[in-house]
Design brief:
The complex is a heterodimer of chains A (145) and B (490). Chain A has 145 residues and is of the alpha+beta class. Chain A has two helices and six strands, in the order H-E-E-H-E-E-E-E. Helix content of chain A is 19%, strand content 28%. The longest helix of chain A has 15 residues, at 66-80. Chain A is globular, with a radius of gyration of 17 Å. Chain A starts with 20 loop residues before the first helix and ends in a 12-residue tail after the last strand. Chain B is built from 18 helices and 15 strands. Chain B has helices at residues 14-17, 56-66, 83-86, 119-126, 148-151, 161-168, 188-201, 220-238, 253-265, 279-291, 304-307, 316-326, 344-355, 392-399, 409-412, 418-437, 442-454, 458-467, and strands at 42-50, 89-96, 99-109, 136-145, 175-179, 205-207, 243-247, 270-274, 295-299, 313-314, 330-332, 358-359, 371-372, 380-384, 404-406. In chain B, helix 12 runs parallel beside helix 13 (344-355) and helix 16 (418-437) packs across helix 17. The chains are: A alpha+beta (145), B alpha/beta (490). Chains A and B meet through helix 1, strand 4, strand 5 and strand 6 of A and helix 6, helix 8 and helix 16 of B.
Chain lengths: 145, 490
């Protein structure tokens, strides 16, 4: 049987082959044209409810040049790229949205250990599930040495 | 043909007006062509087909009367009240283009005729006795203007589109779902298998069908337990938030709440109800959902019994309005290209009603009123029924980004299995969004975009091979009465 080979598919384009820099720039240009503010965030914890990734920079509310955003992406890759996920987010502050409008992965760590599912059995066949990220097993300061 | 008389009715006052006996509705005060609706009035637009010999203004007045204070004869007890206020007022009748036996009647209702925060009460007047009234051959409620003051008494969607997206961490693309098939007969264990495969393959949601509640082949607790095993396994496998719409529809409200509580206990992000629950039950579960951080999906089971025929019943856009007020987060609202009823312009009218903060008068979309939604949340439309990945460009074009695209057969019927079906749908969707954002004319080039994406995704190629020629080209029955006119440039 066919099995989906991907194990971390957050974001808008995770089912496509990794985006090239030109493709990333095209998406950034679209976001800028729409008036969105771009930002770059990174983490090594792909837990689906890990909402607050580290901010590489503040949302670039005034940047109109896709190359300038791409520069931040590449700087972030240099610093964190080997062991972290990096995503580009576009924020739309217009009334009735005031939220994230786009979000896509632009970097994956060399090694993607993924998540474990632990079950705790309760009464009446109920089950409590705990999703655990292997990457967080060690304290943050002791990872990737 | 109904002839709009349109004249001002002879006004009777005092003892003459209240002499025992029967009067025409229009002289009882229900036809007031000079009336200017107040900002706080509810306005309803009816399509009326009067019986032969009944003039348009009298028919409109009769509808106003029977949907508000009137009875068939004069009653002196009206004089104990401020009767002029409580009478609904028909104030305008328009011919229906190309339908000489029908006309549109605008009727205004004072807000105090209705209980705050009660769809049941609002509808008991507006679609109550009046629909069986003998003087009209047929009657259809086409649209309503709900005043801001009245809207503010309603909670609206428990979650709303933006908060739903934030909770799910899914942005910038339509969401993907599938209804478990076969819709009836699977055991809980087999059912959960379909859910797991579809979610792990790449869908965001799977769904119970409208008629899956608690039957001999699968009782509800069993279904909930197996589905949540599938949801959690798939979430861990993909690092994404996943959900299965657990249908909590039941014979009583108490059972419905019991099922919802169990879904919450198991950690589900979403539950589901059917429209056939009734308006009070819908408002009950909506308030429960707000209190318990639960997304609420509504399946519109039953609506086509009264929304599909043009001359009688009610337009689905009115159901959209009532459901945005009653408070649901998802509602099935048409696909344009799938197997169920849906003219493209009519569907756009439904989607705008669910998603926009304001809508303007747009007769070509079936929107007859300017409507301010008073900050009520947005309802996510759901497109479900006979759609497949080969139509991805059309779906994105017609339905936009804030929509759940549900490919049930189009996932589960994939030749390489359910995961392959899900993956093919997700790849098709992502490649189409990518192309759109890159400025490609994706509607014209859709098939090329899909063919290119299929080169690195075998499941997509096999899906395209299987469904490429499937379409449902039937004439819609619920079509616009007004067509957009091209205004010559000056």
């Amino acid at each position: 049987m066919h099995e989906n080979p991907r194990n971390m598919t957050q974001g808008q384009f995770s089912f496509l082959p990794p985006l090239t820099d030109d493709q990333i720039k095209a998406q950034i240009a679209y976001a800028i044209k729409k008036g969105f503010a771009l930002s770059v965030e990174y983490t090594d914890d792909p837990h689906p409810r890990n909402t607050y990734w580290e901010m590489w920079c503040q949302p670039m509310f005034d940047t109109k040049d896709p190359a300038a955003v791409m520069l931040e992406v590449n700087e972030c890759r240099k610093t964190w790229g080997a062991n972290h996920y990096i995503k580009v987010q576009a924020f739309d502050n217009s009334r009735w949205r005031e939220s994230v409008a786009m979000s896509f992965i632009v970097n994956r760590p060399k090694h993607e250990p993924g998540l474990a599912l632990a079950r705790t059995e309760g009464p009446g066949r109920t089950m409590q599930y705990r999703v655990h990220s292997y990457a967080t097993d060690k304290p943050r300061g002791e990872r990737y040495k | 043909m109904a002839k709009p008389d349109m004249g001002k009715a002879k006004e009777l006052t005092g003892a003459d007006r209240y002499k025992a006996g029967v009067l025409e509705y229009k002289v009882m005060g229900y036809w007031q062509p000079d009336y200017v609706p107040k900002e706080t009035d509810v306005i309803a637009l009816f399509r009326i087909t009067p019986q032969p010999g009944v003039a348009a203004d009298e028919a409109a007045a009769a509808v106003a009367g029977e949907s508000s204070t009137a009875t068939w004869t004069v009653v002196w007890t009206d004089r104990l009240t401020a009767a002029d206020l409580y009478r609904a007022k028909a104030f305008r009748v328009d011919p229906v283009p190309n339908s000489p036996d029908q006309f549109f009647a605008y009727i205004a209702y004072d807000m105090d005729l209705f209980e705050p925060d009660s769809i049941a009460n609002l509808t008991a007047s507006i679609i109550g006795n009046v629909f069986g009234f003998k003087a009209v051959k047929a009657l259809r409620l086409e649209d309503m203007r709900i005043p801001v003051a009245y809207l503010k008494t309603f909670q609206g969607p428990p979650t709303g589109v933006m908060v739903e997206r934030e909770r799910l961490d899914k942005f910038g693309r339509p969401l993907l779902g599938a209804t478990t098939k076969p819709k009836l007969g699977l055991s809980g264990r087999n059912y959960g298998r379909v859910v797991y495969e579809a979610l792990k393959g790449g869908l965001d949601f799977t769904k119970d069908d409208e008629n899956i509640n608690s039957q001999p082949f699968m009782h509800w607790r069993d279904r909930f337990l197996y589905c949540m095993e599938a949801v959690n396994r798939a979430a861990a496998a993909t690092s994404e938030v996943k959900g299965h719409y657990l249908n909590v529809t039941a014979g009583t409200c108490e059972q419905m709440i019991e099922r919802a509580e169990f879904a919450k206990e198991l950690g589900s992000v979403i539950i589901m109800i059917d429209l056939v629950l009734g308006y009070s039950a819908i408002q009950t579960i909506s308030k429960w959902a707000r209190k318990n951080d639960m997304i609420l999906h509504l399946h519109r089971a039953g609506n086509s019994t009264y929304s599909r025929q043009k001359n009688h019943g009610m337009n689905f856009r009115v159901i959209c309005k009532w459901m945005r007020m009653a408070g649901v987060d998802h509602i099935h609202a048409g696909t344009v290209v799938g197997k169920l009823e849906g003219d493209p312009l009519m569907v756009k009218g439904f989607y705008d009603t669910l998603l926009q903060p304001h809508t303007d008068i747009a007769p070509e979309l079936g929107l007859f009123f300017k409507q301010d939604w008073a900050s009520l949340g947005k309802v996510m439309p759901v497109a479900s029924g006979g759609i497949h990945l080969g139509q991805m460009h059309q779906l994105l074009h017609y339905l936009g980004e804030d929509v759940v695209l549900q490919f049930g057969g189009g996932t589960i019927g994939h030749p390489d299995g359910i995961q392959a079906g899900a993956e093919a749908n997700r790849v098709a969707l992502e490649s189409m969004v990518q192309a759109r954002n890159e400025g490609v004319d994706y509607l014209a080039k859709g098939p090329e975009i899909l063919a290119k994406a299929a080169k690195s995704c075998k499941p997509l190629q096999h899906g395209l091979d299987t469904w490429k020629n499937i379409s449902f080209n039937y004439e819609s029955t619920d079509t616009p009465d007004f067509t957009p006119q091209v205004t010559p440039a000056r």
